[in-house]
Amino acid sequence: MNQEYTQRLKKIEIELERWLPSSLSGNPVNSDSASNFIMPAMFPTDKIFSGTGNETDVLYKKILLEPAGELLYRGGKRWRPLLMTLICETLGGGDTSLPLSPLVEFSHNASLIHDDIEDQSDERRGKPAVHKMFGADTAINSGSFFYFLASCCIDNCAFTYKEKIYKLWLESMRNLHLGQSMDIYWHRETSIFPEIKDYFLMCRMKTGSLARLAAELGAFAANAPPETARSLSGACEMMGVGFQILDDVKNLTTGIPGKKRGDDIAENKKSLPVLLFIQKFPEKKADIIRCFDAAKKNGVNAPEVEEMINILAKSGILTEAEEKGMSILKETREIFDSFGKNNTLLKDFIDLIS
Length: 354
Fold this sequence. Notes:
This protein has 17 helices and two strands. The protein is about 70% helix and about 0% strand.
């Protein structure tokens, strides 16, 4: 990876460490300043617990922070805060957006904790899902707290108009959860296949909302004109859609690192390859439903998972879906090029994380 990217990612890790030290998860990152921050006091613990402060501290870390940190410090590309930082730099704001890194990265990880519970996933980033380690009840509560922890950096940032940041973040959270609710509704019922336009709307909200937020925060921190913020945020929202489509394809081909190949089928996900196939071959809908039903009942190792992958692959649909995802990223890259004439890091961003 380009050293310029690495330097920025190190700064992002420091901001994440400020609010959730990696030492809590037992997965410390390699950062010289990882232990130089003290966890901020976020609520009056003496009014919640009786007993010593040490007892309170242990409980607070064990029941809220450790499950969240377990997922956060397993890794991840951190591309959302990196995108925010690069846009801010490109628009002349330097690294002023850095303190807002937790707002996008913590929110993303919180959504993953809840998503794994809702999808009954076994793994995330190569290890057992958080709810498998700590129990669903603790994971739900810790994931929810992770959202609220994310917002703490707003009150401690140097921006004067903090209500604007809150507004952007809350709008993103509403969209994210609406998109997730659509996804859940569709995969709950095997026989429901949404229109492709509705799939794109779901992706814009579920996957694109945080990418849009990252762009908006970067532009806001740089005091960019509203039209610039709109152009970049819209492009980044669609970039999130492009990445989601490519993830849909990877899940059914090479597999996504840290997850089981074909687990989207076991979860009955109505991904773009599935919807394109149904649109093109409606007479074969019964075969898809049969494979979905068997995979939902017997899990990702059911033979019907590979059967369905082969059906999609032989039809050419996987290639068609991949080309669609790549075309969206190409359009986003062109917009980045127009703004990033003096910042090759933004111009090359999509290639970095694809």
